[in-house]
Amino acid sequence: METIKNFYLFDNLPPEKLKRLKEISKVKEFNKGSIAFYEGERTDYLMLLTQGILQIYKTDHKGNKIVLHVFYPHTLIAEIVNFENMPYPATGEFLTDGKVILIDYKIFEEEFLRNPDIAFTIIKSLTNKIRYLEHVITNDLVLSSTARVAKFIYEHEYEFLSLKKNEIATLLNITPETLSRIITKFKKLKILEKEKNQYKVVNKEDLRSFFE
User: Fold this and answer.
1) Homologous superfamily of 2-121 in CATH?
2) Phi then psi for 151, rounded to 5 degrees?
3) Residue-wise pLDDT tens digits, 138-196
4) Architecture of domain 143-211 in this structure
């Protein structure tokens, strides 16, 4: 419950409300590669990501993944499906081991959404997701592959160092071969350095020139 108490959506709830929230919630853990939900599924729970990295994707007619969003703790996941009583519009897969808190949405709606602070914060959460989607679309249309990789490394250095190349390529909607070529380029430019089987970012600020 410490996680829920410190989550921005619930940090002003009185003790009795936090206790009630605990009663209608449960924790679920996932291994890396596990599916949190499939496109077309319905749910009775509001999902709060507390650990791990969750990617949201759709699959095209050729079976290729098209990544729409990547979530990091602590954030609500696909709350629109609860509000609109609709199936998940995409699939959620964990790129790392993860953990979520599942909150019974029907009870949450009846007992918590009438709180103006919570309702307003959820609106802000939805607005942020719209802004992120616009950002993704703009990146794919405007930025070159090299710029996208540079921006990803600059903004998500930990993920770049911990995820596999094919996972990063999927996130950026480029091929693994293209990613390898760009990484090789950054090595020649002394931006990246390889130590054993691990890359190290040695000149992080030089990356900015590729996407600004």
Assistant:
1) Jelly Rolls (2.60.120.10)
2) -65, -40
3) 666 677 889 989 988 988 888 888 888 888 887 787 888 999 999 999 999 999 988 77
4) Orthogonal Bundle (1.10)
